[in-house]
Amino acid sequence: MAADLGFDHVFRAPAAAHAPTLLLLHGTGGNEHDLVPLADTLAPGAGVLSPRGKVLERGMPRFFRRLSEGVFDLEDLRVRTRELTAFVAAAASHYGLDPAAIVALGFSNGANIAASTLLLEPGTLAGAILFRAMVPIVPDPLPALSGTSVFMSNGRTDSLIPAAEAERLTMLLRQAGAIVHVEWQPGGHQLTRQDLAQAQKWWLERWSA
Ligand code: MLT
């Protein structure tokens, strides 16, 4: 059983001491097990740290509250982003992870809190894979994200995440100094094989030893 670090979570140690760990952040209604098979395919040998979101929306776990679809409770988002950051720090210390080698992999609501963590808590994540993300919050001033590598994959016909929102997030992250690689899928919100193949290529080029 995983240690009590504030979130129910799955943990698997990286294959080598300084190998990266993927912080897996599921979508609305998901859980800590959802993205583990994806991490196995994408980044074999990486550690896995996968919390379950603590906010419930009609029984569905999420990582922060929203007022309606695409309209976020920004106060809650700030609190939950801090809480997730504290969990990552506690897990790194408890499990002996390299805190400079933690990369988020988030889908939808999970991608949005990953983006919020990049923007509000710089230094927590070395990078991020954002599947179907939008702008969660615009901090003023922007953080310094130079050296942070981000992969974004968006759906052209995504009914939940308008293309302009995904583009706005890319611009915001680049303005903050992050290196952002963007892929567009012909489909909607659901992940496809092409999302995974492109994310895997990005991962192999940057993170595998
Ligand atoms: C969110 O609430 O984070 C986005 O609308 C995506 C989702 O539906 O989870």
Care to describe what's here?
There is one protein chain. The chain has one domain: 3-Layer(aba) Sandwich (Rossmann fold), CATH 3.40.50.1820. Helix 2 packs across helix 3. With about 210 residues, it is α/β, with parallel strands linked by helices. The strands form three sheets. Strands 1-3-2-8-9-10-11 form a seven-stranded mixed β-sheet, sandwiched between helices. It contains five helices and eleven strands; from the N terminus they run ββαβββββαβαββαβα. The mean pLDDT is about 95. D-malate binds next to helix 3.
Our estimate of the beta-strand percent is 15-25%
Question: What gyration radius follows from the Cα positions, in whole Å?
Answer: 15 Å
Total discrete domains: 1
Q: What's the CATH topology label?
A: Rossmann fold
Major sheet description: 7 strands, mixed
What's the quick description here?
By secondary structure, the chain is an alpha/beta fold.
Please name the defining characteristics of this protein:
209 residues, two-stranded antiparallel ribbon, 5 helices, 33% helix, alpha/beta, Rossmann fold, binds D-malate, 11 strands
List the helices and strands and how they pair.
Blueprint: E1 9-12, E2 21-25, H1 36-42, E3 47-51, E4 55-57, E5 60-62, E6 66-68, E7 71-72, H2 74-95, E8 102-107, H3 109-120, E9 127-131, E10 149-155, H4 163-175, E11 179-185, H5 193-206
Parallel strand pairs: 2-3, 2-8, 8-9, 9-10, 10-11
Antiparallel strand pairs: 1-3, 4-5, 6-7
Helix pairs in contact: 2-3
This protein binds D-malate.
